Amino acid sequence: xxxxxxxxxxxxxxxxxxxxxxxxxxxxxxxxxxxxxxxxxxxxxxxxxxxxxxxxxxxxxxxxxxxxxxxxxxxxxxxxxxxxxxxxxxxxxxxxxxxxxxxxxxxxxxxxxxxxxxxxxxxxxxxxxxxxxxxxxxxxxxxxxxxxxxxxxxxxxxxxxxxxxxxxxxxxxxxxxxxxxxxxxxxxxxxxxxxxxxxxxxxxxxxxxxxxxxxxxxxxxxxxxxxxxxxxxxxxxxxxxxxxxxxxxxxxxxxxxxxxxxxxxxxxxxxxxxxxxxxxxxxxxxxxxxxxxxxxxxxxxxxxxxxxxxxxxxxx
Length: 316
Fold this sequence. Notes:
By secondary structure, this protein is mainly α. It has two domains: about 35-185, no CATH class; about 235-315, no CATH class. It has 13 helices and five strands. Helix 2 (about 45-60) packs across helix 6, helix 6 runs antiparallel to helix 8 and helix 12 (about 245-255) packs across helix 13.
């Protein structure tokens, strides 16, 4: 058990060590800048319950507006019963409000309705089957650890409308538990039916998701394969197609000017930097040195003082 634990912990530390080192240099903290808006402002039982309910509700969205409304009303009633503000700014991402969207095939908002139901059925099986608990203690410990991870997630992080994607690792970690319970406690025909159902349910998301559809079916054009035919550079902007022409224009100007050093000015917190690096360096006859300039936050301590770029790009 110790060896297995070390095999997990050591690679984790090695992969993250450079990030920890940079954070220590800039913020004197390996995990946080001290200015993050991600963490709940205060930890309490109310914080945990509120986020447990809201994060679970995110996973249960359906194509039915009526069912989604009932789900929202249930979450709101729970908060009223607990005397907690459903949109408490101390536990909610700034400028957002809790809501239930219709079932989506977009990576930022898609829930995991069927997976939550299957996981719940597995937990019920653990709770009611004393024999299983006695003969599968390792599985039970593993399930408790995954559940504790979800609870810690809810206790520490402010609720966001996009939390479904951040919870995906917990679904992956919980899959072995569900699989073992299914095989050992349910009839083979049930397990086979469940596996086939989950496989078929994944098809629309795997082949026709909103941002990178592999297959598109239209009454006019029939079946097309947009992902295979798309411009590779355009795929970097799948969720913000309006940015692509502007980024391409800037990259083209830099290439034509044969700039060898470029300063990036980050005018806001949420800008797309990486695609610009890609576009600039594609087909450029000479290497381009790119660094941030006019840095005003704490990371300015790492700036290269002598850097004098030939051109500047402001990302806003």
